[in-house]
């Protein structure tokens, strides 16, 4: 019910319900972690729009996940400014520390690792973002280790 | 000594709240315009200022506003393009984090000029701190009566709604952005009709960039002569430049439009790393063709960069030095565009896949005879045949890398290895 209310509230910002599909998907994903087929149908039902409209939006935009992701989704930029400042070494370090390949999730469901396109913080290259948190900039392997330790502690609490 | 305008408050700590903004003269321009200017009068002022759009294309802002039909009985919309995603670009983020009210005041001014009572702020969803600051700023502005009904007793109404992008570079293209606000996949549409005539919900719509909007309160407060007195006659005003890559002091620098690229890189951003020499500079985000070191005396304005077959674009300046491999950089840029291609048109979708495969094998030391000629051919096939500027920009940037640094590409193929890695 809470999801329905918040989606209907968001829909008031637009002259038609189709425009509210993106905000609705953000709300649904925040509540459920990822956008399952059933959840997409639920969103379509709340907005009273065809399911295909919701489905096609969910599969176009990179921030929408139609498959489960880990509790902590690590997104590291590998575009030019970050690459020049050793983003690929940082990515390799993350793969090694988490023992997964880029795009994968740890078996315990704790971490998903993605390489993403420019996050608009090139002055702090190399950089990454965890979930929808603030940016981590000027990364080093030591700094990454600290961040991972912090996340593990957060999960344990 | 150039006095900062756009970053004057943003660089102070905790200047993002409304008290700090008001103390620095914030919302005085809105009050003045609502008191003293007709919408047409404001359009004329901005036309006279010769402000050119800071999003990349450099289109005159007042002229764009003037295209909105006066006789239409449809609602008009303003959209703020805060979908900053061009690799090497981070200037709008700095404005929104540090001085969000400046942009909101600019949105109110632009909305008044074009007769919009609803404006959408399209901001990329990853900009979490900007979004938080803007949500607070919007609440503050409503509470103080700078937004909402009957603003400052003038009868002018304006609601600003945020619409979060969800990780698609293409949505910075204005027609794709409008599709995205309408709840569709972000695929560009044919122009004409232009958004000024038939944009959001088929209604007259103006799309302006964050930095463009941020200039407006200052033009109103300090006048056209002041604004035109900064930088070159054809592209006046203060400008934010983003410096990144292999430069000693990366960051956002506010300087006059038309500063020389060499001065920007060497004097302001500290030049190359110790023991290194600059090899090439990308002047305006990765869509902008790179310039070899010998070309750094060019001035940073729309006209001068266009004249040497590159562009000011987003003013995202990326520096490569003599330790950096141009083939690797070109491959990285190509991968970005290939990933972000919306897939609508074949030249961009398939062409960038093909160029990517060739660049990948060249960098891996498996380049073949004829590969370079194939890249030449593909650049020519993608450029001018793509639906929107994404494909064109990708091909244009690659073509420049191949033209300026052809020897490096040849060396990769002939030696069967990357000489840098």
Oligomeric grouping of the chains: heterodimer
Give start-end ranges of low-pLDDT stretches of chain B. Answer: none
Q: Approximately how much beta-strand content do the residues of chain A carry?
A: 5-15%
Q: Compute the number of helices of chain A.
A: 7
- The strands making up the biggest β-sheet of chain B line up spatially as 6-5-9-7-8
What does this structure look like?
The complex is a heterodimer of chains A (157) and B (421). With 157 residues, chain A is of the alpha+beta class. Chain A folds into two domains: 2-60, Arc Repressor Mutant, subunit A, CATH 1.10.10; 72-156, Glutaredoxin, CATH 3.40.30.10. Chain A has helices spanning 2-11, 21-32, 37-47, 51-58, 80-84, 87-98, 141-156, and strands spanning 72-77, 111-116, 128-130, 135-136. In chain A, strands 2-1-3-4 form a four-stranded mixed sheet, with helices on one face. In chain A, helix 2 packs across helix 3. Chain A starts with a helix and ends with a helix. The mean pLDDT of chain A is 97. Chain B has 421 residues and is α/β, with parallel strands linked by helices. Chain B has three domains: 18-228, NADH-ubiquinone oxidoreductase 51kDa subunit (Rossmann fold); 238-321, Ubiquitin-like (UB roll) (Roll); 326-415, de novo design (two linked rop proteins) (Up-down Bundle). Chain B has a five-stranded mixed sheet, covered by helices on one side. Chain B has a four-stranded parallel sheet with strand order 3-2-1-4, sandwiched between helices. Chain B starts with 17 loop residues before the first helix and ends in a 6-residue tail after the last helix. The chains are: A alpha+beta (157), B alpha/beta (421). The interface between A and B is large, with 43 and 53 residues.
